[in-house]
Amino acid sequence: MEKRKRMLLLVVALMVAGLWSSAAWALRPMGPPMAGLEQGQYSVGFDFSYSKMDLDIDGGTVGDIESSAYLANLGYGIADNWDAFIRLGLAGITDIGESGVDFEGDNQFAYGFGIKGTFAENDALTWGGLFQMDWTKSEDGIVEIDSYEIQIAAGPTYQMEGMSLFCGPFLHFVGGDVSNTPDGTLDIEQESIFGGYVGAQFDIAENASWNIEYQLTGDAYAICTGIEWRF
Fold first, then answer.
1. Minimal CA–CA distance to 151: which of 89, 87, 211, 208?
2. Domain carrying residue 46
3. Would you give the end-to-end CA distance of the chain in angstroms?
4. Any idea what the CATH number is for the domain that residue 60 is in?
5. What is the structure's pLDDT at 104?
6. What is the pLDDT of residue 94?
7. Residues in Cβ contact with 133 at an 8 Å cutoff, skipping those fewer than 6 apart
8. What are phi and psi of 5, to 5 degrees?
9. Residues 129-150: b if buried by 16+ CB within 10 A, e if exposed
10. What is the mean pLDDT of each run of 10 residues along the chain (231 residues)?
11. Contact at 8 Å (CB) between 224 and 55?
């Protein structure tokens, strides 16, 4: 139990340290980079994420873009080592920061999908990866933002009694446009492609778990959490 507490404190410390070291679109929760369902098994859950990001908008950097997302998800074990999921909910860009434009966007319908796979297992250590893609739209009555986002991650998950720790590098791609601006329609692109993340998953009941994670790239960070039931 003491070892478990020390490892949990280390994870929390890494997340807090990341908050203070990041410079900062809406990075989405990834969870453990491995399949978590047996073939034919389902899961339902709810995710929340808050992110802050610098983006390339029509060739210029716009800093401190804030976004949040509230998403329900449904997963299915397509094979013992492969899961697929979809998610639906609300998301939006709440502020476009240093752009000089007074933008306070609303939360609108958001959706996405993804797949997770387990590549190798060695006792308590599992290696795997994931791919996910999400779409977001937000507007303030005049300016409208439409974007998509792709995350590709791989890494280890270390399983202990009642909890798991996970981490790994990931790739992050953003695309879309900002329309109805004084300069017309502007293209959106990520500033940084490479990032890393760390997190923990806790068993809170039989077939139920809670995740928390911190994601960081050179120009973005996100805090994500979620709860999942498997049946």
1. 87
2. 2-230
3. 28
4. 2.40.160.20
5. 64
6. 59
7. 112, 113, 114, 148, 149, 150, 151
8. -65, -40
9. bbbbbbebbbbbeebbbbbebb
10. 43 38 61 96 96 84 83 95 95 61 70 97 96 87 85 97 96 90 85 95 95 95 96 94
11. no
CB 174 within 8 A of CB 188: yes
How many domains is the chain partitioned into structurally? 1
Q: What is the pTM of this model?
A: 0.84
Q: Which two tokens stand for residue 27?
A: 């990075």
CA–CA separation, 16 and 176 (whole Å): 31
Q: Residue by residue, what is the 3-state secondary structure of the chain?
A: CHHHHHHHHHHHHHHHHHHHHCCCCCCCCCCCCCCCCCCCCEEEEEEEEEEEEEEEECCEEEEEEEEEEEEEEEEEEEECCEEEEEEEEEEEEEECHHHCCCCCCCCEEEEEEEEEEEEEEECCEEEEEEEEEEEEEEECCCCEEEEEEEEEEEEEEEEECCEEEEEEEEEEEEEEEEEEECCEEEEEEECCCEEEEEEEEEEEECCEEEEEEEEEECCEEEEEEEEEEEC
According to the model, what pLDDT value does residue 207 have? 93
pLDDT of residue 142: 78
Calculate the alpha carbon distances from 128 to 117, 121, 149, 183 in Å: 6, 9, 21, 44
pLDDT at 55: 84
With contact defined as beta carbons under 8 Å apart, do 27 and 153 qualify?
no
Backbone angles phi, psi at 30, to 5 degrees: -110, -35
